[in-house]
Amino acid sequence: MIGGCGSLFLPGTKICAVDSPKFWLAYWRSMADSYAHVTYLEQRFGNGAARLDIRAYRSARGAQREGRDTPEAQFVRESHEKRATENDHAKPLITACRTSLMFFEGNSSLEWTFVSPPAMYRSGRKTGTYETLTDYIPLRGDQNDSGILEGRLKGISTFDFAIAIADEAERRNFREQHWTAWGEISDDEPAPSPYINL
Q1: pLDDT tens-digit series, residues 127-145
Q2: How many CA atoms does the CB half-sphere of 51 hold within 13 Å?
Q3: Fewest Cβ atoms closer than 10 Å to its Cβ: which of 12, 22, 100, 108?
Q4: Count H helices, E strands: the chain?
Q5: Residue 190 — φ and ψ, nearest 5°?
């Protein structure tokens, strides 16, 4: 079963990312700061991306960083971050993914595995390499410290995530476990989304 990153726990806790305003803030800030992620969201959701205001939010964050802030940019940042931490539009879907995991946990009557992508999952180049972790969101730096999440969320390309899933289907290393895989996505160049032609 493939779920969402919100099903993963914050390191050192038993708090799911979906239930953490701190996670949502770090998630949307990381998304907006990446040109590749903004493009990926627009490709994946088409006109629905307009509801996200991701490009306007990206611009407002850039204005603040570059010392050219305006009251309008501040309003965009504050309203977007308030919506992200109080009532993110994606929360119902991610909560549903977490609920589906709960049907599997503790069930030994069938052979199952449940994989969640890391937070910064997007289209990108294929490297063929990845790392794995069970139950927790992968972070840069101290994996056991979830105090500050901003700038620490790891990711993976859609290609490498597919390789990790295929490898698990063959190797079965994560039987009856919830796991994730992450890889190299340091380039910030947009790649064609596999969702465009769906």
Answers
A1: 999 999 999 999 999 998 8
A2: 8
A3: 108
A4: 7, 5
A5: -65, 145
Q: How many domains, in total, are found in the chain? A: 1
For residue 78, give both structure tokens.
């504050």
Does a structural domain hold residue 188?
no
The domain of 72 spans: 5-182
Q: Would you say residue 47 lies in a domain?
A: yes
User: Residue 107 is part of a domain; what is its CATH number?
Assistant: 3.40.50
Amino acid 106 reads G
What's the chain's Rg over C-alpha atoms? 17
C-alpha distances (whole Å) from 164 to each of 18, 27, 114, 122, 153 are 23, 23, 12, 14, 19
Residue pair 16/98 in contact (Cβ under 8 Å)? The answer is yes
**Residue 104 in domain:** yes
Q: Which two tokens stand for residue 148?
A: 């500050």
Considering the domain boundaries, does residue 78 fall inside one? Answer: yes
Identify the bridge partners of residue 24 per DSSP, sorted by sequence position: none
